[in-house]
UniProtKB/TrEMBL annotation:
<feature type="transmembrane region" description="Helical">
    <location>
        <begin position="172"/>
        <end position="191"/>
    </location>
</feature>
<keyword id="KW-0472">Membrane</keyword>
<protein>
    <submittedName>
        <fullName>YitT family protein</fullName>
    </submittedName>
</protein>
<dbReference type="Pfam" id="PF19700">
    <property type="entry name" value="DUF6198"/>
</dbReference>
<keyword id="KW-0812">Transmembrane</keyword>
<keyword id="KW-1133">Transmembrane helix</keyword>
<feature type="transmembrane region" description="Helical">
    <location>
        <begin position="146"/>
        <end position="166"/>
    </location>
</feature>
<dbReference type="InterPro" id="IPR038750">
    <property type="entry name" value="YczE/YyaS-like"/>
</dbReference>
<feature type="transmembrane region" description="Helical">
    <location>
        <begin position="50"/>
        <end position="68"/>
    </location>
</feature>
<feature type="transmembrane region" description="Helical">
    <location>
        <begin position="100"/>
        <end position="125"/>
    </location>
</feature>
<feature type="transmembrane region" description="Helical">
    <location>
        <begin position="12"/>
        <end position="35"/>
    </location>
</feature>
<feature type="transmembrane region" description="Helical">
    <location>
        <begin position="75"/>
        <end position="94"/>
    </location>
</feature>
Length: 204
């Protein structure tokens, strides 16, 4: 029972932290990650919120992933995108009220903090080993279909999102580059350390 509780707390708490980090990248105003830039661009073009588009794009990707891998849709990933989408709207609309940071130095500091926060939160939520974010599922699907290495598949997925974000006028900038290249190494740094801590608590 204790291990189940720890997994649930890791899952919800990690997604809450990730959503906070994503929100900060958007509010920093220097460019968000490719997928987040796509969601922001779509929100600007429509009456739906950023969190709504996190959910809509996630649902589309669940279907695309199933088609690419010729398997059943990973339905439980819906829970992940619902939680993430609503958390992002909570931070953006309720807490920060769509404010934007100004001044390059402050924006850069907020952006770097946001990237660390996203990696930290992702390292926590992945401990639950419950449901991948559909974006990650898309990366694995590309790898399996094209027979390429995971990093190549990730690059292809990010480029697809980047082109789509550019088309819809999403916020692309130096932040987009930093998010793309720093998240992975930071997750590699945080994950084993958090894993040891959570495993230690699980056996208490």
């Amino acid at each position: 029972m204790k291990s189940v509780m720890i997994r649930a707390l890791s899952y919800i708490g990690g997604l809450l932290i990730v959503s906070f980090g994503v929100t900060l990248t958007i509010l920093a105003g220097l460019g968000a990650g490719a997928w987040d830039a796509l969601n922001v661009g779509l929100a600007i073009q429509t009456r739906f919120s950023v969190g709504n588009w996190v959910i809509f794009v996630g649902i589309i990707l669940i279907g695309v992933n199933a088609l690419l891998t010729r398997t059943k849709p990973v339905v439980h990933s819906l829970l992940t995108i619902l939680i993430l989408g609503y958390f992002i709207d909570f931070w953006l609309i309720i807490v920060f009220n769509d404010m934007l940071f100004s001044g390059f130095m402050l924006q850069m500091i907020i952006l770097l903090i946001a990237i660390v926060v996203i990696a930290f939160g992702a390292s926590i939520y992945m401990q639950a080993e419950f449901a991948l974010i559909p974006i990650d599922g898309f990366m694995f699907a590309i790898r399996d279909v094209l027979g390429v290495k995971l990093m190549v598949a990730k690059t292809i997925a990010e480029l697809i999102a980047l082109v789509a974000a550019f088309i819809v006028g999403g916020p692309i900038g130096i932040g987009t580059i930093l998010v793309t290249f720093l998240i992975g190494p930071l997750i590699q740094f945080f994950f084993p350390r958090i894993e040891k801590r959570i495993n230690w608590k699980a056996i208490q």
